[in-house]
Amino acid sequence: MDKLDDLYRDIVLDHSTSPRGTQAIERVDASASLFNPACGDRVQLSVQFENGTVSHIQCVSKACSICTASGSILAEAIPQLPTSKARDHIEAIKSMIRERTVPAVLQDTDAASLAGVAEFPNRVRCALLPWTALEQALSSVSFRAEQSGVEKSLKDSHEISPPSLNKVREESK
């Protein structure tokens, strides 16, 4: 076993025994709860945003050490990133865990310690569960923003109005 494997094992052990990001956050703007029925891992992820940036993350898991460590690493790595960079990190993690190649964006980070999970196919889902929860939380925010934009454009449009509003307009003529 080489020194890098020892270091990665120590990082995963540290994050699994003392997980970061478990404290409650002030405001929950998006969340996702995921369950892996194959092993019983559960992850509850909550996200707070400020000006298009992930400001805080809470990741609470009842899970194996790999899943818990992955959630802890996520909770340290993602805050203060713009949402677009958070999405880039998710893709980099997925790629790294599936291919065991550490992308440049993850080198010299605790996230690189998860690369070895690729050697254990049964554990890949465990490592990806928190990242998939983050992906779902970010997608829910994007969907709500799109819906909000559509609703605003409908309200601002004079051509499309709710039927009751059309009736009031006709009666006032």
Describe the structure.
The protein has 173 residues and is of the alpha+beta class. The protein has a single domain (3-171), classed as Sufe protein. Chain: A. Helices cover 52% and strands 16% of the residues. The chain has five helices and three strands. A three-stranded antiparallel β-sheet has the order 1-2-3, with helices on one face. β2 and β3 (53-62) form a beta hairpin. α1 packs across α2 (65-77) and α2 packs across α4. The relative contact order is 0.15. The model is unreliable at 150-173 (pLDDT under 50).
- Outline, from the CA principal axes? globular
Topology-level CATH name = Sufe protein. Chain: A
**What is the CATH C level class, in words?**
Alpha Beta
User: What is the terminal-to-terminal distance?
Assistant: 84 Å
Query: What is the helix fraction of residues, given as a range?
Result: 40-55%
**How is the main sheet built?**
3 strands, antiparallel
List the helices and strands and how they pair.
Blueprint lengths: L2 H15 L12 E7 L4 E10 L2 E10 L2 H13 L5 H17 L21 H36 L6 H9 L2
Antiparallel strand pairs: 1-2, 2-3
Task: Write a short abstract of this structure.
This protein has 173 residues and is of the alpha+beta class. It has one domain (3-171): Sufe protein. Chain: A (Alpha-Beta Complex), CATH 3.90.1010.10.
List keywords for this structure.
173 residues; alpha+beta; Sufe protein. Chain: A; three-stranded antiparallel β-sheet; globular
